[in-house]
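Handout for the seminar on molecular recognition.
Each group receives one record of this type.
Step one: identify the two inputs.
Step two: read the structure output and locate the region that could contact PRP.
Step three: write two sentences on what you found, then compare them with the reference statements printed after the record.
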Amino acid sequence: MEWTKWLREIPDFPQPGILFRDVLPIMAHNDAWQEVLDGLEQRIKPLAPDAIMAPEARGFLIAAPLADRLKIGLVPVRKPGKLPAPILSETYSLEYGENQLEVERDSNLAGKRVVIVDDVLATGGTVAATSRLASRLSATVVGFAFLIELASLGGRSRLDANALVTSLLTL
Ligand SMILES: O=P(O)(O)OC[C@H]1O[C@H](OP(=O)(O)OP(=O)(O)O)[C@H](O)[C@@H]1O
Ligand SMILES: Nc1ncnc2[nH]cnc12
């Protein structure tokens, strides 16, 4: 797993006591980035998803190339106040704060198999909120895929037990 050498760890960001796992240097190195996308694609493909959902912002950067590789739709889940059309909203907390996530009501997800992707699974608050939005849109969440899982924060236990939860690297 060569890509892991480009994972940057920054202490006390964005708050004292948080060890921030910065994935952007991985994206800046094409071999590493292709290795990550290959790994995620291999794990997601057997789930036969119809669409990917991803939370803003780092999730978007991973979801877009994966949706293109898999030739499926992409439904972005945004931070508050960004979407122009009628929305659904969920409040959530994450490792370093709380916020809302929003999705357009008209997202073409009813009856679809959805995989949720993001860079880091920490407490799981972000993707659990994304999953609630998927359910409210009558989609079935069949999987969650991450580059990195911070196991000590227990996010996995907050996610639907019927869905696959997969991470390329567990720390
Ligand atoms: O498992 P959790 O405790 O919910 O934390 C994980 C989330 O935190 C980060 O997002 P952040 O809100 O910092 O957004 P960004 O991608 O816009 O930087 C990360 O990209 C995940 O979405
Ligand atoms: N420690 C961490 N590093 C990067 N992103 C995060 N999101 C939540 N916790 C995080």
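Reference statements: Strands lie at 8-11, 19-22, 51-55, 73-77, 87-94, 97-104, 113-121, 140-149, 164-170. Residues 18-21, 94-95, 120, 122 surround adenine (ligand 2) (CB under 6 Å).
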